[in-house]
Each structure stands twice: as structure tokens, then as C-alpha cells.
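ARCHIVE CARD
Drawer: 12
Card no.: 0347
Subject: one protein chain, sequence and derived structure
Cross-reference: see card 0346
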Amino acid sequence: MGSTTFSITYETVVRDRPVSMIRIHRAAGDPRRGWLTADSWTIPVALGRGGILANKREGDGGTPRGSFRPLQLWWRADRHPRPQTYLPARPIRPEDAWCEDPSDRHYNQPVRLVHDQAGDRLTRQDHLYDFIVEIDHNFSPRIAGRGSAVFLHLARINFSPTAGCVSMTKSAMLRLLRRMGPQTKIIIG
């Protein structure tokens, strides 16, 4: 008798895989607003008060032009369950902050602060940082003064400009997170 062989193949539906690319560009008529496109859907976003800038500097309010990768998701586990994503995820703790001081050796890196230290705390009273996608802007190498704490995060109700990040609604963020992975390319500009 002959042997019977068969193969079990699992096929992933395209909509269940991470997108390869996300494009962000400014909206016509307002450099502080933009559009994010991933696959076949497009959502409105708020950009930095300085618009999209090719030569990003600390404090200029610009969203950096370029090609980036998402590094990880930070989220407020005290407010939301862990969202579905292909990204590594880390809950935000009360002592988590981001160093924005170009003279500090921890510039553009996460830091842990005690209650009276200054720094851009990730636990905010508003909900802007309930979900933060850390991207590799000014990451390797880190260059003092080239910009720090550039994230994808939640938008204010009126979509007012950010300090240089890209922000969106919570529903858009959750949808994007379900399709974003470490190899997803983020093109800004």
C-alpha cells in the first residue's frame, strides 16, 4: 500500500497581516492637519504646529519628514485593555517619562522619574498618551537637538496641532494598531 501524505496549510487573510506601509501627508490648506493612509483606508490626523519639516529641531513644533519604523506600543493599562497589535507592547507606569533635554545623556529615550522630577510624563490627565506608538525618529544614532518624543498618539477633540507628533482619534488608533507591526514603514511627507 502506498503512503498517504497531505499538507495542512494555514493561510492568513490579507486584512489580518500587518500593513507594509503607512503614508502621512499634510492636508491642502492647513500644514498642521494631515491624512494617514494605510491599505485602502484614510483617516484625518493632526500634525505638529510647525507642519512637516525636513530638518527637525528640538522645540520647533515640526513633524519630521522621512521614513520611520514603529518600535513599540505604550498604553495606559489602568484605563484600557491591551489593544490588538503586532507591535511589542508595554504598559505605562506612573514613573515613565521621556527625556527631551538635548544636554542629557538620556536624550530622546524613556526614563523613570520620581514624583518631583521634571520631564515629559507619559501618564497624563488628558487622554492624549493613552496609546503611544514610539517610532525610530532620531533613534540610532541619537543626535542632540534633532528632536525627541515624536510619537503617534491620540488627538485632542478639536484636532489642534501637536508639538511634532502625529495624532488621531481613538477608534482610528485602535484600527491602525491591529494592522501595524515592527516592519511597517511609516512615510511622513
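Annotation on reverse: The mean pLDDT is 92. The helical segments are 170-179.
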